[in-house]
Amino acid sequence: MQTNVANQTSNITVEDDRTGLSIETLKRAFADNLFYIQGKLSILANFTDYYMALSYTTRDRLLQRWLQTLKVYHEQDIKTVYYLSAEFLMGRHLGNSLINLDLYESIEQAVKESGLDLTEVLEQEPDPGLGNGGLGRLAACFLDSLATLEIPAMGYGIRYEFGIFNQSIQHGWQVEIPDKWLKCGNPWEVVRYESTVQVKFGGHTEVYNDDRGRPHTRWIPSFTVEGIPHDTPVPGYQTNTVNTLRLWKAEAGEDFNFQAFNSGDYDGAVATKIKSETISKVLYPNDNTPQGRQLRLEQQFFFVSCSLQDIIRRHLKKYGRLDNLADHAAVQLNDTHPAISIAEMMRLLVDDHQMFWDEAWRITQSTFAYTNHTLMPEALEKWGVPLFESLLPRHLEIIYEINHRFLQDVQTWFPDDNELLLRLSIIEEGGGKKVRMANLATIGSHAVNGVAALHTELLKQDVLRDFYKLWPEKFNNKTNGVTPRRWVLLANPTFSELITEKIGGSWLKHLDELRKLETFIDDPEFRDRWRQIKQANKQKLADYILAHNSVEVDVNSIFDIQVKRIHEYKRQHLDLLHIIGLYLRIKQNPNIKMTPRTFIFGGKAAPGYFMAKLIIKAINAVADVVNRDPDVHGRIKVVFLANFSASLGQLIYPAADLSEQISTAGKEASGTGNMKFTMNGALTIGTLDGANIEIREEVGDDNFFLFGLTAAEVEKMKYEGYNPRDYYDSNEELRTVLDRLAMGYFSPGEKDLFKPLVDSLLHHDDYMLLADYQAYSDCQAKVSDAYQDIERWTTMSILNVARSGKFSSDRTIKEYCDDIWNVKPVKVELEPYDPARA
Ligand code: C3B
Asked: Which of 374, 571, 692 for mutating ligand 1's site (highest number of atoms within 8 Å of CB)?
């Protein structure tokens, strides 16, 4: 492609190419980076080159703020938040950096004057998928809010070489393709070799006496791995604060190969290298269902040990002592994935820094806090003792010691309650001993939180009930939130413009101000534009669907969307049963009146999760039949969008009319997609689950389509003996729907394809689809009616947005700061860039 990038070196001489913000300087910097970093003349450059050059241009402007932030943190007496997470689903960096630097329009102009279209360049960026779903994306929203609120903070995680797989759909089935996100290089990371740390594995422990005759334990590992920090800047929105996301890459220790190599065992030497590097090779693609694989424990310990050593090293350098660690560091455990931190911190303090146990324990407990993200029993991490012992022998000893002391305390508080001891113990007995990571995290932390009000209540009453009895004051709720910068401003620019025009721009930092939109609710011009923007967003998604699925959809139909990981508890198949129900109604009566709908699905299934993959196939099979049937006459269409990701989400949320949040009550800890839909003006059809409850509370009962059993009703029904067959027998439509699916109506040539799905519903129905089917179907009829009244729908949509302020992650982060971390903002003042002084 011919552009005029190189022709733009006009007569500007004063502004610095690396910091200047004028269009001319940006153009020159862009051309310069294309030439000197990408090594390309513009006539030979491709879009990846443009993307890279533009990223470096943007990164230069971040660096000034980033290094200044580091300097301020270094010089001032501050307390820092360390967010430990095995996943960070950051989304694309370039667009977000431009937004947060307030540089979007200037760069857009500079790029345009260079003959290019910014949106096309932005599309070149690989979406760094270093997470599975909600938990990883929450971590990313939190980093954005921390920087925006000017809180000293650092994210710590793993630099996976392969992120979440790319999903393609072949013959209706999910096919996984490795995600080589680093193949063209990563302009957003800076490697800090000088801060490399050593991580030990395996081996044994031994006791020795120090100079003064005090006994200590030391760990003699069988191998050591190096952790190399890769730092990514995390800019706040319209602040100078740029925090750091530090991801660790595993490499072989320096001395790994010499012995083997010198004795001629070249293969052996390389094998060690490969084993070491395997640790940060790939993200486990499971969401809410851990697999007890050794490599996974290695990953967890690897990044925890790297991060804690890093925190201690930096603290010691600054303060020269460790007794005040908790005054300067708050470490948050994002689920149990980093829970081994509790034992590793004790090891570092007691063994390496020779601290007394009680002092080390006080520091550990006051430093750590733990967030639980799921009640699914199968998702609570447990590691077999033999595996643990072979990989982390010293940590097992430390865990036994923590457990021993803890259970002694329990015994004095509750004498003679052996059952209680068994339930509270970090070690699960019977059927092979296991280490319970949630117990370890709860005992070793000063605060434990759930992620929505209902979830926290259920934690207290159920999963962590006994701990709640011991320490009620430890437990607190922190309802999740999402960043409005990525999920509204970046994803939905015209909509954001309308809002800013009406209420000013400060809503982006104070989302509660969206309330002011209610004053415009009767303004016909405002309402018109509101609808036009939604329509235009739907058109954009329709274009995408046509290009990717070859399905033409009607932008006047209800865009009814369910995007999230595929899981039985999330009940994508309930949505599907309803679609089949509608289809059968059309088949029975081709003239039936029906509000047109486009049902859109997206989401990945864990590769080993058979039923989830079968659900994807079923959606596509139904889509094939429904979309081709002339009787349907375009009234319903079904689309499965492949490879749902953060970037695809940015296209989808703004285009939704209806948000499907239909998990079995009590199963979805919070949900965060629900919040993104609401903020972009979609209405929700949902159960009383997770944060849906709070969304409904905020937007008002009249502006939310509620259906289904409550968590308490689900429990009661299960307790009393739930029989899904009763619903099958008594509900004719439901019976026909299930029969058609089971008979092969949607799978010609493969009669029994969906039998496992139907059997599971008829015989177990763990997630109570059949019990909720009729209520869901009735509620959907109300949605269709409401959509017929376009004025009523518009009012509801505006109210949903105006009342969504609570769901900003800024609010969530402020609560963590006040109630758990006890940290305060730190202002970063910018100094003019001066290479001579730097
Ligand atoms: C998810 C939960 O399933 C969601 O309800 C919740 O909104 C998010 O975490 C964020 O809190 N979750 C996940 O994505 N992965 C897990 N292993 C556990 C929970």
From this structure: 374
Report the C-alpha gap between 618 and 612 in whole angstroms: 10
Cβ(238)–Cβ(102) below 8 Å: yes
676 is catalytic: yes
Nearest Cα neighbor of 122 from 486, 542, 478 is 486
Q: How confident is the model at residue 404 (pLDDT cuts 50, 70, 90)?
A: very high
Flag whether the pTM goes above 0.80.
yes
Ligand 1 interacting residues, C-beta cut-off 6 A:
132-135, 138, 287-288, 335, 373-374, 379, 451, 480, 668-672, 690
Query: 254 pLDDT exceeds 70?
Result: no
Cβ neighbourhood burial of 630 (10 Å; 0-12, 13-18, 19+): exposed
Which atom of ligand 1 approaches the CA of 480 most closely? 11
The per-residue pLDDT for 18 is 87
Q: How far is the CA of 466 from the centre of ligand 1 (A)?
A: 23
Q: What is the pLDDT of residues 612-625, one digit of tens each?
A: 999 999 999 999 99
Catalytic residue status for 347:
no
**Which of 651, 650, 670 minimizes the C-alpha distance to 661?**
670
The Cα–Cα gap between 579 and 587 comes to 12
C-alpha 234 – ligand 1 centre gap (Å): 22
Identified catalytic residue from 567, 570, 667, 806 = 570
117-151 residue pLDDT tens: 999 999 999 999 999 999 999 999 999 999 999 99
Distance from the alpha carbon of residue 612 to the mean position of ligand 1, in angstroms? 17
- The Cα–Cα gap between 509 and 381 comes to 37
Question: Is 565 noted as a catalytic residue in this protein?
Answer: yes
* Alpha-carbon radius of gyration of the chain: 28
CB of 660 closer than 8 Å to CB of 211:
no
Q: How far apart are CA 34 and CA 26, in angstroms?
A: 12
782 catalytic? Reply is: no
